[in-house]
Amino acid sequence: MSLLAGSTDGLGNQDGAATVARFSKDIKGLAVSPSGDVVIADAGNNAIRKISTTGQVSTVAGGGVTNISIYATPIVNYADGTGTAAQFGAPEAVAVDSAGNTYVADTKNHVVRKIDAAGKATTLAGQPGKCGNADGSAPAATFCNPSSIAVDGAGTVYVAEMGSANGRISQVSGNPIRKISATGEVTTVVFKASQMPSRQHFSGGAYVYFYIPVRLAVDAGGTLYVADPNDHVVRKFEPNGQVTVLAGTVSENNAGYMDGAGTAAKFHGLDAIALDRQNQAYVLDGDGVNKRIRRVGSDGTVSTIVQSPRCSMFETLGQSPCSATHLAVDAAGGLLVNEFGSMDGSAYVTYSSVRRFTADGLTSSVVAGSLSGFGALDGTGGAARFALPTGLAFGKGGTLYAADSLNHTLRTISAEGVTRTIGVPTQSCYRAEPGRVTETSFCYVTTLALDGAENLYVPTGNRIMKVTPAGDVSLLVDLTAWVYSPGGAGYDQVQGIALDSAGNVYVAMETSGVIFKISPTGQPVVFAGSLHVRGHADGQGSAARFSALGNMTTDASGNFYVVDGKDYPSQGIGPTVRKITPEGVVSTIAGKADAAPGWVDGARDVARFRVADEPLISSLQSAQLAVDGSGNVYITDPITSVIRKIAAADGQVSTLVGQPGRYGFTAGPLPGMVNRPVGIAVRNSTLYISMPNAVVQVHLP
C-alpha cells in the first residue's frame, strides 16, 4: 500500500512517533506525570493516551470509537482490565500522582477510574452507568458526569461533576466538588461550588439556568484551586476548610478579560486550571473567540501570557489556543493545550494535536498529532489537497475520478498521481444547474459514474447531472416527483449510481426502497424494488425489497451490486450486499439481514458488515463497493476502518486491508493501516481507496 495523492494527516488513533501519531477530535484533559510524560484523555477514542519524553505516543488503556451519549442505556464501553482490554466512556479528565498512577474522570460511565503503572484499569469509585451524587464507600457512591479531577500528595482525589439526577442541563441543580479519600470514602466538599448559575438563552426568549462544573487543580500540600466558570473567579480551598477567592469578583455579568491584582481582575469562560512546580496557577480563559492563557500569582495578580487572535473554531487554528479546552504545565513551565480545527470555513474537524507554548507565551510548537492535510490544491502526489474525497471511478483511459465531497467538486488523478479539479471549489454550495463545468459546484457529491464516451454522471440530492468531456453540464433527470413522500421521509437522496453498456443509468435511492433505471434521454422507470415499500426480500423486480440502499457498482457482465441496510436502527435490518442481474433478479451475496451490524469474516451467510455509523460520524462516510475482473467484490468499512473482500468463488468474506479499530495510515505490506476508507475502485490488480483527504493505492497479492 502507498499514497497516490493528497495527505494522510488528520484524525485517528494511531500510536507511534509524535509526527505519525493521530488523535480524535475530542482530546480532553491533560496531565504531566512526575517523569515528564504527558497523559491525555482522548475522549473521542475512549482511551487514555501518553506522549513520552522521547516523543512516542502510546495507548495506556482503553480504545475503540463506540459513540457515547449521555442518554445511552445500557452503558456502553465500560470494562476494567489491562491496556486495550479496558474500556472507557468518553473520559474528559486525567490526573497523575507521585507514584505514576493515573486517575480518570470516566465521564459518560459516571465513575472514577485508576490506572496503575502497569496499565491496569480499575474502578476507584462510583457505579457504572448510574448518574447521581451519593456519598459513601467507593463502590456505593455515585457520580454524575465527572469532568475534572485532581490528586494531592496524600492520595486524596478530588472530582468536579454535575449536580443532577440525570445529567441534563435543564435539571442541573448544582456543581459539586467531591472527595475520595485514600481509604475509599467518598464525601461532598461542596454541592454548589458556585454562588451563581450560568444561563442559556433559547429562541422562545426564556433562559435556562444551570451550574457548569468547576475545574480543579491541587498542590502537594492539599490546597485545592478551583476555576469557576459560573462566578468567573478562581478560589482556594485550604486543607483546614477555609475558602477564599484568589482572583476575580463574584457578581452577575462580571465576565471580562481584565488583568490586575485580586478583585480587580476579570475572567470569562475559565475552561481549565493547572499548577506549575512552584504552585503558581494558570487558567485557560475565553468565550470561544478570544481564548487566552492567564497566570494567577500566589497573591492573586492576574496576567495574560498567551492571547489568541479573534478566531472561529472553523478556521485554521495553528499557533493559537483558539479551540483549546484543557491545559497542563510541564516541568519546564511549558503550557500544554489541546488543539483541534478545520480549514476554509468547513464545519468538519480535520486535525487534532497537542500544542506547547513556551513559559513566556512567545512561541509554540506541536508536541504530537498533526495539522490538517485538508484543502483544495491541485498538484502531484502529496502536494495535492482534498476535502474528504469519497466516491472513485475509472475512465476508459485509466484516469481515476474522485468525488471531492467537501470541496463540492470532482477531481482527476493520473497514474502518476497528478491531481486536477473539475468544477469550482466552494464553501457555500448551492444546487448545480446546467451550464459550464467551470462555473459549477457539485454539492456534497459522494459518488459518480462514467460511460464509454467519458461522460460523467453526478448525483446531487435527487437529481443526476451529466458532464461531457467538453465541460458542458446538463440535467439528466430530476427524481423529486417520484421519491417525494409527504407522510414519510420527504425528499430522498441518490446514494448509488452505475451504468450499463447501453448507456442506461441505474440509481439506488436511500429510503424509497427502489433502484431506478434511467434511459440515456432521462426517462426513469423502477428497475427493482417497490416504491416507498421497505424491507429485505430477494426476488425479481418489484418482488424484491430493500431497506436502506447505499453505494452501487457493476461488473463486466452487467450485474449490479449495492449496499443495503445502512440505517439499521430505524429499520432493524442488518447490512448486506445485494446483487441485481441485468434482468432485475435480486439476491443477497453476503451479510445477515437479521443481525445487527458488526465485523465478522467467514461464509457469506455468517459474515456481518458495518457500513455506516449511527448517528453518522459524517453523512458522507458510508461503505462503497468495487468489483474486479474475476468477480470478487470489495467493500469499504469506514467505521471499522478496513477493506473487506467477498470472494467470487465461494462468497467467503475476509479482511484484506487495515486493522479493525485502528485509524491512521501505515504504508507497506498489507494489512497496513487506513483511516476511515470510503471510496474504492479497482483496475487490473490495484485497488484505489479514498480516505479523509487522500487517495491510496493497494497492489493486490
UniProtKB/TrEMBL annotation:
Organismal lineage: Bacteria, Pseudomonadati, Pseudomonadota, Betaproteobacteria, Burkholderiales
Pfam family, one: SBBP
Protein name: NHL repeat-containing protein
InterPro entries in alphabetical order: 6-blade_b-propeller_TolB-like, SBBP_repeat
